[in-house]
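Long-time lurker, first post. I've been practising inverse folding by hand and with some scripts of my own, and I keep getting stuck on stretches where the structure tokens seem ambiguous. Below is the full token string for one chain I'm working on. Before anyone asks, I'm not after the true native sequence, just a reasonable design that respects the backbone. If someone could post their per-position residues I'd love to compare against what I wrote down in my notebook.
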């Protein structure tokens, strides 16, 4: 099966766009994803594949007022938000480890690993390297 779509040029290396492809039918078993490009000089942040009618982190992030978190992953544990937000951070076991308000989250005192950031309208995975 072949499926494609065109991407548009953004304003710069730190300006990202989300592209969603609906109704892609995958056969049972293993599949191969190939990305073919016609020119160089692009950034591909991530690819998220989810079942139809399922809720994923990707579907929460795709709201009209999209919040961005950077850098992610973070080598220092300092994460910046593109907007002031009330936020909560949870460990992978579901225990709340931090909360606050503003544009910066400081997880420097915590171990390397995966955390979940929740705001009123957004959820993100945070990776401290």
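-- Answer (accepted) --
I ran through it position by position. Result:
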């Amino acid at each position: 099966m072949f499926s494609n779509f065109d991407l548009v040029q953004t304003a710069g290396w730190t300006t990202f766009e989300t592209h969603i492809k609906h109704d892609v039918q995958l056969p049972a078993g293993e599949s191969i994803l190939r990305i073919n490009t016609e020119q160089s000089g692009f950034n591909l942040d991530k690819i998220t594949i989810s079942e139809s009618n399922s809720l994923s982190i990707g579907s929460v992030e795709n709201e009209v007022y999209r919040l961005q978190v950077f850098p992610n992953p973070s080598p220092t544990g300092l994460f910046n938000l593109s907007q002031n937000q009330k936020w909560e951070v949870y460990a992978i076991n579901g225990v709340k480890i931090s909360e606050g308000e503003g544009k910066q989250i400081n997880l420097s005192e915590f171990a390397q690993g995966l955390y979940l950031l929740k705001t009123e309208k957004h959820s993100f995975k945070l990776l401290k390297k």
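A couple of notes from the structure itself: Residues 84 and 102 are 4 Å apart (CA to CA). DSSP finds one helix and five strands in the chain. Happy to go over any region you disagree with.
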